[in-house]
Specification:
Elements (H helix, E strand, L loop, with lengths): L1 H18 L12 E16 L3 E13 L6 E14 H4 L5 E11 L8 E7 L3 E3 L6 E6 L5 E6 L3 E5 L7 E8 L14 E3 L2 E7 L1 E5 L4 E24 L3 E10 L3 E8 L1
Antiparallel strand pairs: 1-2, 2-3, 3-11, 3-12, 4-10, 4-14, 5-12, 6-9, 7-8, 9-10, 13-14, 14-15, 14-16
């Protein structure tokens, strides 16, 4: 009986959380994406001899959507890891990296909502030729894929917490030389933010603004590792983790 009640509670909670995301339609027949912003952050994390993480974020807005009250912003994230073996001719390789994106607290659930993202959890940890298909369908269907050979994608996103989060976990201890852990690797996840049209004025400054905006707060983490051995008999792995500063991936459109 207790198990049944728990299941009923979780189902009710899921329905409530789903209802918090507005169901907004695209009315136009031929919507398309146009680039409205980008963030290029080479060497976002850089440590000698361990390696570096580079970031490139491109933001598109859905055009010709036929809806004057909302905009859809598509965030395409490219996370490039360059292990120390490549960057600094050391023996350090990539072990994992984490990408976390949340909505600014004062806009989450009122002006901004995450309405789609991809990929979800997918396993290529032991495979030499695996790709994950990214498919976004919020207002406009956009599909592409990227390689996850010897990489496991772990989805830790939570709509109720306004959070989109991925871990790319590399098989650094089992992958053959020349594969993703000890080579340059590009992860390409993405998400969509629904933004509500707002109009505001500041009486003190005498300034008024109307339009839509997406206010995404992001942080990134990367772990590098290398193998150590004592007398060639006893071997173990040593790891080093680095965190980026907090980033504000903001974009707006004035009307």
């Amino acid at each position: 009986m207790r198990l049944i009640l728990i299941k009923i509670f979780m189902l009710t909670l899921s329905l409530i959380l789903i209802s918090l995301i507005p169901h907004i339609n695209v009315y136009a027949d031929a919507p398309y994406l146009t680039k409205v912003g980008y963030y290029y952050l080479p060497q976002l994390i850089d440590s000698n001899p361990h390696g570096r993480l580079n970031l490139y974020v491109v933001i598109y807005r859905l055009m010709n959507d036929g809806n004057p009250n909302y905009d859809w912003y598509y965030y395409f994230i490219q996370i490039q890891t360059v292990p120390g073996k490549v960057a600094y001719n050391s023996d350090w390789v990539t072990a994992d990296h984490t990408a976390e994106h949340t909505l600014a607290s004062f806009d989450a659930g009122t002006n901004n909502w995450f309405v789609d993202y991809d990929p979800t959890t997918f396993y290529g940890y032991y495979s030499a030729s695996t790709s994950v298909i990214v498919r976004l369908t919020a207002g406009y269907i956009f599909t592409y894929k990227y390689d996850i050979s010897y990489v496991k994608v772990i989805d830790l996103s939570d709509y109720s917490q306004y959070r989109i989060k991925w871990i790319h976990d590399f098989n650094e201890q089992g992958a053959p030389p020349g594969s993703s852990p000890d080579s340059i690797y590009n992860a390409k996840p993405s998400f969509v933010v629904l933004a509500k049209y707002v109009s505001m004025c500041d009486g003190v400054l005498g300034y008024c603004w109307s339009g839509t905006f997406a206010h995404v707060v992001a942080s990134y983490r990367v772990t590098f590792g290398h193998q150590l051995c004592w007398l060639g008999i006893w071997c173990w792995w040593e790891y080093k983790t680095f965190d980026s500063d907090v980033l504000y991936l903001y974009v707006s459109t004035s009307y």
